[in-house]
DNA sequence: GCTTGTTTATCTTATG
DNA sequence: CATAAGATAAACAAGC
């Protein structure tokens, strides 16, 4: 009955929102940023469903890019031919899908007006974008086995040339600036953004989770597997951790439940990188990795109850 | 003229 | 059931 060739998966809309699809695409790229056309391509390559009605969904997707603050536009440098800008994930968007659902986020990521302006008009974007090139070379590709197990891009440099005391754990800065941060700027540009432009694997969870969590993202082969859902998620039986950080010491396997409540409003608007991030760090990334995956494997927006996994 | 972006409006749907 | 997030439509500007 269920013949995976025709009417089975292809017809069904993948259990991902445009936001997650886009995030997926972006994260799958080496530079963590993609021009619109490539985002389209990515989605179409992996989800047969989106090979039709392109006009419709692409319009929606574009709307999402503009409308959602979690996506930032990075202008092309003059030496980089092509249409449109690059799109990246706002470093602060953090674990947008912390609840395990890629259909709907717990809360929409919205910047404040001030941040908006600064972020969008920052002339520094070009600069950082430029820097990015050289940097990434030194760092190696995310796939480079030689590097670190989990989040390779992190090792070699840090935002200010690495003088900041050495290597920053993936959960340091990004998480730090993540979620709670709402006003940390560096010359009009969110510090987090800067990092991002420099090649940091932005939204922690996403970047790390994505690769192992979204099959299609990882395998960029031409033989795009049918669809995300169910059966094709074989590899998910495996505990996330072991999948990408064999060393086993990357993630602080903190058994954090689900985020309590986004009500932490006591964040000191410090202009530096220092912050009260304890809570932040503890609140989700690892939790997501540890518990969410299995559910995601289920594909459907159905199995989205972290609680189930906990029991 | 097409692609890329932005914005507004409305409808749908997941969640609390 | 109310609300907020997401989807879809559509108008329109800018750039190539």
TrEMBL record:
GO biological process terms, semicolon-separated: anatomical structure morphogenesis; cell differentiation
Domain of life from the UniProt record: Eukaryota
Compartment(s): Nucleus
Keyword Hydrolase carried by entry: no
Signal peptide region: none
One family name in Pfam for this protein: Forkhead
Predominant subcellular localization, coarse grouping: nucleus
PANTHER family assigned to the protein according to its UniProt record, in alphabetical order: FORKHEAD BOX PROTEIN (PTHR11829), FORKHEAD BOX PROTEIN B2 (PTHR11829:SF215)
Descriptive protein name: Fork-head domain-containing protein
Species of origin: Megalops atlanticus (Tarpon)
Native organism taxonomy: Eukaryota, Metazoa, Chordata, Craniata, Vertebrata
């Amino acid at each position: 009955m269920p013949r995976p060739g025709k009417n089975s998966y292809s017809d069904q809309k993948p259990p991902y929102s445009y936001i997650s699809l886009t995030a997926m695409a972006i994260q799958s790229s080496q530079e963590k940023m993609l021009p619109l056309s490539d985002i389209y391509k990515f989605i179409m390559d992996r989800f047969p469903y989106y090979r039709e009605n392109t006009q419709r969904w692409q319009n929606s997707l574009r709307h999402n890019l503009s409308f959602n603050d979690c996506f930032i536009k990075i202008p092309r440098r003059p030496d980089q031919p092509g249409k449109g800008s690059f799109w990246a994930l706002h470093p602060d968007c953090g674990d947008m899908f912390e609840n395990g659902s890629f259909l709907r986020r717990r809360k929409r990521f919205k910047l404040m007006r001030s941040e908006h302006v600064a972020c969008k008009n920052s002339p520094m974007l070009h600069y950082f974008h430029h820097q990015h090139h050289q940097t990434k070379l030194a760092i190696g590709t995310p796939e480079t086995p030689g590097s670190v197990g989990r989040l390779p891009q992190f090792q070699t440099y840090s935002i200010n040339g690495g003088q900041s005391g050495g290597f920053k754990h993936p959960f340091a800065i990004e998480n730090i600036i993540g979620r709670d941060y709402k006003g940390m700027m560096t010359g009009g540009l969110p510090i987090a953004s800067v990092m991002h432009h420099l090649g940091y694997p932005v939204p922690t969870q996403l970047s790390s989770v994505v690769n192992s969590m979204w099959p299609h993202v990882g395998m960029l082969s031409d033989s795009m597997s049918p669809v995300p859902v169910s059966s094709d998620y074989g590899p998910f039986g495996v505990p996330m951790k072991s999948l990408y950080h064999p060393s086993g010491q990357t993630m602080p396997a903190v058994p954090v439940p689900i985020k309590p409540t986004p009500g932490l409003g006591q964040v000191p608007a410090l202009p530096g990188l220092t912050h009260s991030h304890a809570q932040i760090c503890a609140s989700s990334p690892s939790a997501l990795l540890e518990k969410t995956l299995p559910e995601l494997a289920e594909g459907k927006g159905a199995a989205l109850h972290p609680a189930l996994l906990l029991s």
